[in-house]
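hi!! sorry for the late reply, been swamped w classes. u asked for the two structures so here they r. pasted raw, havent cleaned anything up. first the sequence of the first protein and right below it the tokens
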Amino acid sequence: MLREIHYGEVVDMVRWLWVRTRAGSRRALSFWADVKGDRLVKRLPLPEVAFMLARACGPAGSCAEYLHNTVAHLEAEGIRDRNLWRLQALVAEDLRQ
């Protein structure tokens, strides 16, 4: 969690939610992007997003590594998001080139 809320401007974008799982209701930490913000790029094709993620890196590490860790941890919890997996596959393919 420290990676996401290291910068003060994103603290209000973190919420605890109740979610339904096979094991019953659980609390989950949610991060969201305000669609009214000027730093959000809307509706880019997934290959373009993957291209940018494969090259993006900041003080907390690379976006490719962060995406991989996110997908792996979700999978370990039995959560498989097809869009994140597709994005992960595109980023991995881009990095292999």
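now the second protein. again sequence first, tokens right under
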Amino acid sequence: MVTLIAESEQKVYNTLDQLDISYARYEHPPVYTVDEAKQYWQDIKGSHAKNLFLRNNKGSRHYLVVLEETKTADLKGLSTQLDAGKLSFASERRLMEHLGLEAGSVSPFGLINDSQKAVTVVIDRDLSRNGLVNFHPNVNTATITVTNQDFEKFLKHCGSEIIYI
């Protein structure tokens, strides 16, 4: 069986190859939430993430929040930490405009599409606790694993502002 890879996903692999970043790819049915994805993560080592795309109340700032999957996002606390004003989930239109992603596929790998560097990345420090991290490769039908060191290399390549919490 030949797997067709979407252009948005292939762009991730091309970038990782260009950066000499190794990865493991795991296919699964489409998933839209962490709860749906958990059943497919059983044999995938490493930390799994919950990725949220947020905006401030004026819509002038956008944030990609990357949390360890067991955590719950405290938007009020986060807005205070970031001095961002009230935070809310950004629309699907904004998600496509800034990260080139569809709902259900939010991932740090979408930063390769943020040519304006308009998205601030907020990363949970606990995500790096076991050396490997897992994210969607800009589609919700696969998960890829990279080392934390290579994830940092990818983030540096993207050039976005990064805040660790």
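hope this helps!! also noticed smth abt the second:
The two ends are 43 Å apart (CA to CA).
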